[in-house]
Amino acid sequence: MENATKGLMIAGAVLIALVLVALGVFLVNQAQGMKGTVQGQFDDTTISIFNQKFEASEGTIQGPAVKTLLTNISQNNQQAINDGTEDAKGINLVYDNGTTIDGQTPKNTSPNAIIAIRAQINTGRSYLVSMSYKTSGPGSRLIDTITILPQ
Description:
Blueprint: H1 2-38, H2 44-55, E1 59-62, H3 63-83, H4 86-89, E2 92-95, H5 111-118, E3 126-133, E4 143-150
Parallel strand pairs: 2-4
Antiparallel strand pairs: 1-3, 3-4
């Protein structure tokens, strides 16, 4: 009888070990799926949520709203740098008739340069904000460039 009890305990331990291994494999597979999303594979909901943060500012807005938008762009670009998702999530900024704020092409606009232009925004002035979207590659359909023109 004791041998049967010990055998059942060993079988139970093996069963528990198999369940834990299967759970580990499942979690690793889930983590791989999340890694794919971070690297630029976005579903429609993720795209919509990402774009909504910025699309609310599209059109003619006042200086304080522009400052908020620029802060959001800077934070987004810094997060994209930290995540290694600059190509997918990085937002280019063009200010004042196509001139870039740091003397480089819009794609190279850094978070610090965006904050520098934020200090120059006149809170009593209106600005026209427009957006263009990525059409291919990682993060297609995400906002690619935001243009801000003083009115």
